[in-house]
């Protein structure tokens, strides 16, 4: 795989402004973070400059070149991001969970139906698509509504820690279960709850798959200014084919332009992103 070429300074500056990657836009409170997530549409939690896309950690740092240190426990910016994550999660104004490929991500309410159309499942599909362990955990949560990790293990019968964690991760990836609160005393644990309890309208809203792909692409391109080969797929967990379908839908409606296969520009910011695109030729 070829190493991606650096983006032009104009594109990076566009992203600095949209993704709070500069000191004047630094995120310092849960309210700031929620506003950042709403504007971005979705954002990772603790990714750094080595991965593309909007990130709460980078927004807390207020610089585009932020790199997560090895010893995150002693890093004030990583610690601040973790505290904000807990506050945002407890406030329940934006969606937070481990989604595709196990990446912890925040989703603005307006984009939740789009992600759910791609990765969610109807209740009638659960028996055929969820593992027995995930179904056992889900039965308990639907009865009790919220429960700590250790209590879930005991009540569901999935007593093995690794198996229970895998079941919860499976339910998060299907956008059924979310962490509702982090508790640190007497020991650290998450309190788990049903996503539909926090976002009933968004998770019950049906959206065609093609429309969902288009709107996920729109949210990303609005903040990126330009998206290059494989970038949208890497940020969201979409396949490259689906990412391309979303971007091409934006081109057809005039929201985006395409300078080469796999390279798309926000039409209204065309002057910012000119000159990008001749380097890639596939989705």
Topology:
Elements: H1 9-18, H2 30-40, E1 42-44, H3 56-61, H4 76-91, E2 95-98, E3 104-107, H5 112-119, H6 126-129, H7 132-144, E4 146-148, H8 149-156, H9 161-173, E5 177-183, E6 189-194, H10 195-198, H11 200-204, H12 209-224, E7 226-227, H13 231-236, H14 240-252, E8 256-260, E9 263-266
Antiparallel strand pairs: 1-3, 2-3, 4-6, 5-6, 7-9, 8-9
Helix pairs in contact: 2-4, 5-12, 7-8, 7-9, 12-14
Question: Keywords, please?
Answer:
single chain; 283 residues; alpha+beta; Arc Repressor Mutant, subunit A; three-stranded antiparallel β-sheet; 47% helix; disordered C terminus
Structure, described:
The chain has 283 residues and is of the alpha+beta class. It folds into three domains: 9-112, no CATH class; 121-174 and 176-201, Orthogonal Bundle (Arc Repressor Mutant, subunit A), CATH 1.10.10; 209-269, Winged helix-like DNA-binding domain superfamily/Winged helix DNA-binding domain (Arc Repressor Mutant, subunit A, Orthogonal Bundle). Helices cover 47% and strands 13% of the residues. It has 14 helices and nine strands. It has helices at residues 9-18, 30-40, 56-61, 76-91, 112-119, 126-129, 132-144, 149-156, 161-173, 195-198, 200-204, 209-224, 231-236, 240-252; strands at 42-44, 95-98, 104-107, 146-148, 177-183, 189-194, 226-227, 256-260, 263-266. Strands 1-3-2 form a three-stranded antiparallel sheet. Strands 4-6-5 form a three-stranded antiparallel sheet. A three-stranded antiparallel sheet has the order 7-9-8, covered by helices on one side. A hairpin with a 2-residue loop joins strand 8 (256-260) and strand 9. The longest helix is centred in the N-terminal third of the chain and has 16 residues, at 76-91. The radius of gyration is 19 Å and the shape is globular. The two termini are 14 Å apart.
């Amino acid at each position: 795989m070829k190493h991606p070429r650096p983006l032009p300074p104009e594109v990076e500056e566009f992203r600095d402004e949209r993704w709070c990657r500069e000191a004047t836009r630094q995120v310092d409170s849960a309210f700031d973070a929620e506003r950042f997530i709403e504007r971005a549409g979705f954002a990772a939690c603790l990714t750094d400059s080595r991965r593309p896309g909007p990130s709460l950690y980078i927004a807390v740092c207020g610089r585009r070149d932020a790199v997560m240190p090895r010893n995150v426990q002693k890093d004030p910016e990583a610690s601040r991001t973790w505290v904000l994550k807990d506050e945002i999660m407890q406030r329940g104004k934006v969606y937070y969970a481990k989604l595709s490929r196990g990446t912890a991500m925040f989703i603005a309410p307006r984009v939740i139906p789009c992600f759910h159309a791609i990765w969610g499942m109807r209740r009638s599909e659960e028996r055929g698509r969820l593992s027995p362990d995930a179904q056992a955990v889900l039965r308990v949560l639907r009865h009790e509504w919220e429960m700590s990790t250790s209590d879930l293990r005991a009540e569901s019968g999935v007593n093995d820690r690794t198996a229970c964690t895998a079941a919860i991760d499976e339910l998060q990836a299907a956008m059924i279960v979310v962490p509702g609160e982090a508790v640190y005393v007497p020991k650290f644990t998450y309190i788990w709850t049903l996503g539909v309890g926090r976002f009933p309208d968004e998770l019950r809203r049906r959206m065609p798959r093609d429309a969902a792909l288009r709107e996920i692409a729109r949210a990303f391109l609005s903040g990126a200014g330009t998206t290059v080969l494989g970038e949208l797929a890497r940020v969201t967990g979409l396949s490259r084919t689906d990412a391309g379908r979303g971007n091409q839908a934006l081109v057809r409606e005039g929201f985006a332009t395409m300078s080469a296969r796999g390279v798309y520009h926000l039409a209204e910011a065309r002057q910012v992103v000119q000159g990008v695109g001749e380097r890639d030729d596939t989705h």
